[in-house]
Amino acid sequence: MLSAKDIRVSLGKTPVLHGISAEALPGEVTVIVGPNGSGKTTLLRALTGDVPFAGQVQLNGKDCARLRPWELAAVRGVLPQASVMAFPFTVAEVVRLGLTAAAHAGRADLVPRALAAVDMEGFSARLYQELSGGQQARVQLARVLVQVWEPVVDGVPRWLFLDEPVASLDIAHQLGVVQLMRAFARRGGGVVAVLHDLNLTAMVADRVWLMDQGRLTGQGRVAEVLTDAALERAYGCPLRVGRLPPQGGWFALPQAAGAA
Amino acid sequence: MVALDAVRLSGDRDAQARNAMLALSVALLLTAGLSLSHGASEVSLGSLLHVLVSGQAMADQDRLILWEIRLPRMLTGVLVGASLAVAGAVMQGLFRNPLADPGLVGVGAGAGLGAVLAIVLGGLAPVWITQAMGYHLVPLAAFFGGWVSTLLLYRVATRSGRTSVATMLLAGIALGALAGAATGVLVYIADDRQLRDLTFWGLGSLGGASWPKVLAAGPVMALALLAAPFLARGLNGLALGEAAAHHIGLPVQRVKAVAILTVAAATGAAVAVSGGIGFIGIVVPHLLRLATGPDHRFLLVNAGLAGATLLLLADLIARSIITPAELPIGIVTATLGAPVFLWILLRRRGLVDL
B93: distance to nearest CA of chain A, Å? Predict the structure, then answer.
């Protein structure tokens, strides 16, 4: 289990997160949503220890602040929002970096499998810097995947922390990443992701954390948390949620001013 | 052969880098032999080998030249060349930028200031210190100068885990100027003998190589060279940025600390024995990255081998181009290196965040 207790973050003197407590379970996809500047990414970065924060984050019952980098890396992979890469590494070399400190460091066979999982097979000899933004994002995801390839090891779940993993992807690859997240959770791993797209969120999330102005204004199932009223309050624009007939898929439709 | 290549993952350049390692080792051996045999008094490679194999005694004069002049010079060249190239590669890995070179960003100047301080003011230190330190005083002072300036540079140019190239280069200029000014003051108050010492290594030369100097600065350089390969995984990870390097399980702070110490030791000791030899640290790693990729597991070793080879070659040029006099080697490396540096800039135009 991932449990965050009273997480507070300040940038300079401005408080950005006002004491957030939340839980995420292995075997589930937890998605953090909210408008720009609501603190989604800051919360994720606090959970992964990338910003200084007050409070406590526990992963599988252990205080993250007390774990060594390689102990953390053994149970969680982290995909940052933007990834810069110095020096002309090939795609295969970038993905292999995910194995750097892993107990399964010798499993070079995972590199092509992870590349196939993000639909980048055939690119392994290409230079990373020559790829498009979306392709680079998929290569970085493959790097994170090889690090925590098995979602459960010796009964201990592993975790994926993904900051906007679909931001620069086309619709087909967005769905591909959503499926990867689902598959990882179905096999027992935990996934915590920041997403912008509410409809994609509804498709993938078992649990939603709705952020608004540095506070968690709701956590729970999609249908419980993402209601017309809660979304309008958070995003400040009229939104109607509904269900599509065949499988009852959830959707949110923005109501543009002036439209019928 | 074809089948084997098919099994290996494409995009994995390990085999290429290993072949390069072998080729560079052979090149270094050959160049070292050439460096021993070539000079005002010719000792042919053949006769050198003959002596080695047969154990036969050499003529006294030849032995003196070889043992007292050429061997320390060759060893100094190998250690200095390897140190400069490896320090360059480590610093570029640390700053995640191929333009970061200790010589360009003020670390060399800082090390130089340390050395000048020791040369000029060393006499003022309590006698027991100078006696205890002996020849080690100058390399150690250079090491501390290099360490302080590397640390300062990193602190100035890196904010929340990201290093700005523009800040790094500009801060390097400022640091270099500051060290230059302080060095100027010391030169001003130096006496004639000290001035000769200063001029000698200001231009960069292996001419002053001697056994005491090899024994004083050699271990510092050797230590840095031996430490460098242990940084390989860390520097590879740092290419992803500090946060991601941490998330793949690397002890980032330790990697950075060891990298800074390595750069300072290698640059400081190299500057102390041979003065301002430029561009080895930037040209060698860059060419190697083009040839076999940026993986530091091979880059650091290959840079050492190639840097040593290149410096021995530059030294051969320096002492044969205007015989019987010799050119300061810094002039040779700058003449060859500066155009390569410009070429790197041209290739990267638009990629540097200036």
Answer: 8
Q: What is the extent of the structural domain holding A115? A: 2-254
CA gap B96, B300 in Å, rounded: 15
Residue of B233, B244, B249 lying closest to A83 (CB–CB): B244
Amino acid identity at A48 = T
Closest by CA position to B165, among listed B88, B95, B108: B95
Assign residue A43 a region: left if phi > 0, alpha if psi is -120 to 50, beta otherwise? Answer: alpha
Q: Chain B residues with CB-CB distance to A under 8 A? A: 9-13, 96-98, 233, 236-241, 243-244, 246-252, 289, 293-295
Q: What are the residue boundaries of the structural domains of chain B, listed by start? A: 80-344
The predicted-structure confidence for B303-351, as pLDDT tens digits, reads as follows: 999 999 999 999 999 888 887 788 888 888 888 888 887 887 787 654 4
pLDDT of amino acid B2? 39
Start-to-end Cα distance in chain B: 46
DSSP summary character for residue B41: S
Kindly state the DSSP code that residue A105 receives in the 8-state scheme: T
**Distance of residue A221 Cα from the nearest chain B Cα, in angstroms:** 29
Tell me the C-alpha distance between B291 and B272, whole Å.
31
- At the fourth CATH level, which superfamily is domain B80-344? ABC transporter involved in vitamin B12 uptake, BtuC (1.10.3470.10)
Percent of chain B with pLDDT over 90: 32
d(CA B244, CA A48): 11
Distance CA B16, CA B30 (A): 21
Q: What is the CATH number of the domain that holds A178?
A: 3.40.50.300
ipTM score of the complex? 0.93
| Placement of tokens 């407590």 in the chain | A21
Distance from CA of A51 to the nearest CA of B (A): 9
CA-closest candidate to residue A187, choices A26, A51, A62, A30? A26
Q: Which helix (H) or strand (E) holds B77?
A: helix B71-95
Residue B58: what are its φ and ψ, rounded to 5°?
-95, 170
Q: Provide the token pair at A157.
A: 């779940």
Q: How many CB atoms lie within 10 A of CB A91?
A: 27
Task: Please enumerate in sequence order all residues whose Cβ is within 8 A of that of B121, keeping only pairs 6 or more positions apart, or say none.
Answer: B186
B253 chain-A contacts, CB cut-off 8 A: none
* Cis amide leading into B324 (omega within 30): yes
